[in-house]
Amino acid sequence: MGSKNIDIVRTTTWSAGPGCHGGCGVLAHIKDGELIKIEGDPDHPWNQGRLCARALAMTQYVKHEDRITRPLKRVGKRGQGKWEEISWEEALDYIEKKMKDIREEYGPESVIFSMGTGRDIGPWICMLAYAFGSPNVMFSLSGSACYGPRLSACNTFQGCYCVFDAGQWLPKRYEDPKFKLPETIIIWGYNIAATCPDNLFGHWVIDMMKRGTKIICVDPRLSFFASRSKHWLQIRPGTDAALAMGMLNVIINEDLYDHDFLEKWTNGAHLMRMDTGKLLREVHLDKTGAPDNFVVWDENSGEPVIWHSSETEFKTLNVKAAFSGLWDVILADGTRVTCRTAWDAYREEVNKYPLDKVQEITRVDADEIRKAARLYATSKPAAIQWGVPIDMTPAVTPTCHAIASLWALTGNLDIPGGNVIAKFAFDAVSYALPGAVGPIGLKDKKMDAKRVGVKEYGPYRTFHWRAQTDMTLDQIFTGKPYPIKGMWIQTAGLLNGIGLDPKKWKKALEKLDFIAAVDLFHTPTTQYADILLPASTFLEKNGVRSWWVPLQTINKAMKVDQCRPDVEINFELARRFDPDFKYDTVNELFDEILKPSGMTFEQLQKKGWAIPPEDHPSSPYHRHEKGQLRPDGKPGFKTPTGKFELYSTYREEWGLDPLPHHEEPPFTPVSRPDLAKEYPLILSTGRRSPAYFHSEHRNIPWLRQLDPDPVVEIHPQTAAAHDIGNGEWVWLENWLGRCKMKAKVTPIVPPWMVMAAHGWWYPEKKAAEPSLYGVWECNVNQLIPMGNQGKDGQGAPIKHLLCRIIKANGKETNNG
C-alpha cells in the first residue's frame, strides 16, 4: 500500500534497530528506497499501534553516518582502530580459511560462537556453529544470567515456561470471553520503561490496571508500578527467595492454598526415605506382610495409590489422609524403610521462614508481607510477572522454584488470568530449546560432549544448550581441557555491555588467534576483531518469529549499501563449512521452521500473522489437564514425575538441594561484613532505560537527548552525607574497580543502595586504545566479577554488589 510514491510496508520488529525482543507490528514508510517515517501498526494484536522511542528513531538509525556498510579488515594491531574496506567475497574467503585452519589443527570446539541478547540471533548463530562442528555457542553474560536461567529453572520443576496472561493468545484479547482479568498481579523486579523485556509489554499490565487489576510490587526502587501498587515490598536485592518463602509460609499455614491442585498436580504425595532424605523412586511390593499404613504411587499412571493389608488390591489414594505422617514401605528385597511425603518436607522447609526472620533478611515489613500474601492467595485469578533481577543472583533456580510455588499452590498455573504455559506458536521452532525441537540442531550428538560446562552442570547437560560462560572465559587462559583459539562475535558487546570484568575479557580477546565480528556500528568490542561484517536492521531483512504468539514474518522494506542480514551471513558460511548443509535458500529454511503451522513463509507473509486456534497445543488454557504438555500425551506436566515438582527430582539427581530456599549472595552486607565496612552501599545495576537497549543506541541523537549521561541514583540522605549534589559527577568504587557517573539525587532508591546505569560507553570518543570510546571511564561492569555463578552454573551477583561513592573533581581518569 502507499500514496505519493510512498510504499508502506507492514513488518515486525525484532532487531537490530530497537534492540529489544520485539514482536511489535510496524508500518515502515519508504520513499525512493529511504525510510522517511515509522509508526506502530494499529491492527497488530500485540502493540495495537503503540511504539517505543527506539523504534520511532529508526529514521536516524538506518542511515547513521557511523554505520558500517562494507566488510572491514583490521590492518593495525588489535585495539588500534585501523581498518580497510574489502569485498564480501574477500571477507568470507578470509573467515573460511582462518576458521578451517583452527578446525583442522585444534578441532571445531576450539572456536566459540559468542552471542548477546536482542536480535533473532539464537537460531542463526547455532546454525553456523553446528555447521562448523562446534557445540560451543555462548551467551556471553556470566552464568547466562538473563532469561535463560528462568527458562531452565521452570523446565526443572514444572517442565515448561509460563508468563502472565494478558489475553495475548486470544484474537479479541481482553474482550475474549475465555479471558479472565487477573484480580491481582505481582510485579516482581520489572520496570515499565523497558517496554518488552522477555517478550512481554508493560502496557499490557497498564491495560489491565485500567480494568481493575490490583498490583503488588516487589522492587527496591520506587518504580512506576511500585508507586501505583496496593502493596510495595521494598526488598533488599538478592533476597527474593526468602520473600517468596515467607509468603508461602503465610499461604500454607493459613490454609490459603489450592488443595485440589496440590493433591492432583504436584508430587507432594510422593515419598521420601527418612534414612537417605531422597525421593523414593521405584518400589516393587510383595504384599505379604505389608503394613497397614502404606502409600506409594503408580509409575505408569502417575497417580498416588494406597494399599492396606486387609485389602486385596491397590486403590486410589485419599491424598488428604496421606499427605502427612510417616509411612512404612517394604521394598522388593523385603527391606522395610520409613518414609514421609515430599509435602511434609516442603512444609518443613517453608516453616524455616517465619515472617520475623524474613523481615530481617529482606528488610520488608512482616505485616506488609502477610497482607500481600493474603491478597495474592485470595485473588482469583492472580498472576506474577517477574523480571531479569531474578536471573541475576547465583541461587537463581531455588529462587525461581520459590516464586513459581506461589502460582502453583494457589492454583494459578495454566488458567485464564493466571500464569499461562508459554509454547511457541503452532509449535514452529527454529532451533533446539528446552521444551521444543526445531530443524536447527547438532548434526552429531557426540559433538555435545565437548561443550564447555556440559559435564559439570546438570541444567547444561539436561536442557540448557549453551556453553557455560565463566568456564569458557577461564578456558581461554588455561587451554584445558582443550585450547580455545577463535571466536565468532555476533550481537555481543563483551567490553561495553554483556561482559562482566571487561578488562579480563579484553585480555582474553587479545589472546585469541582469530576473531570475526558482525555488527552495525563499531564498538569497544569490535576493535579487537580481525574482520568485521556489516549487519542489517530488521527493516532490511526477511525473517520468522514464532516466540509464543502470534506467528509472524519480518518483511524486508529497504536495503542499505552492502549490509546483510545475520541469517544470510551465517547461512552462506554454514554452506561453506558443511558440505552436507541441506538448504539451498534461506526461504527453504524458513519453510521448514514454519512446517508445523501448515504454512510456507510466502503464505504467512501474505497473511501477516496467525494466532493458533482453540485447543491447539500452543493455545491456552488448562493444557496440563488435556495432555498437551507431556510427550506421551498424558495429563500432567513435562517433568520426570509428570507433576509440578515441589521436590525437584532433577535437582536431586544433580546433587543439589531439591527444595526451594534462600541462599545469601556472595557479596552483600550479610555475607561479607568485612567488605561492607569499606564499601557500605549496595550497588545494583541494570535499571532499564526507555531510550536504550543495554549498550545500544548511545549514538542515536534523539535517544541520547532523552538519556544523555550514565546516571547513578542516590538517595538525598546518602548524597548529603557525601557532599554530592544533583547532577555532579561521582566515582563508584569497590575492590574490583571503579567508574564515573552523574549523580541523580532522588528518594526513589533507599539510603542504603545506589542504582547505576549499565551498558555505557561514548561513541563520540576515540576508538583506539587507551580510550576505546571511553568505556573504562563509565562501564559499571568493572565492579562486577566473573566466576560467581550458582551451584548449577547459572546466575550471577549483578544486582547486589557493594560499593562506595566519591565525589569526582573532574581530573581523574580511568583508562584501562
TrEMBL record:
CDD domains: MopB_CT_Acetylene-hydratase (cd02781). Keywords: Iron, Iron-sulfur, Metal-binding, Molybdenum, Oxidoreductase. GO terms for molecular function: acetylene hydratase activity; iron-sulfur cluster binding; metal ion binding; molybdopterin cofactor binding; oxidoreductase activity. It holds the Pfam family Molybdopterin. Its cofactor is Mo-bis(molybdopterin guanine dinucleotide). Residues 612-638 are annotated as: Disordered. SUPFAM superfamilies: ADC-like (SSF50692), Formate dehydrogenase/DMSO reductase, domains 1-3 (SSF53706). Gene3D superfamilies: 2.40.40.20, 3.40.50.740, ADC-like domains, Dimethylsulfoxide Reductase, domain 2. It comes from the Bacteria. Residues 626-635 have a biased composition (Basic and acidic residues). Residues 10-66 form the 4Fe-4S Mo/W bis-MGD-type domain. Belongs to the prokaryotic molybdopterin-containing oxidoreductase family. This is Putative molybdopterin oxidoreductase, associated with bss3-genes. It comes from Desulfobacula toluolica (strain DSM 7467 / Tol2). The lineage of its organism: Bacteria, Pseudomonadati, Thermodesulfobacteriota, Desulfobacteria, Desulfobacterales.
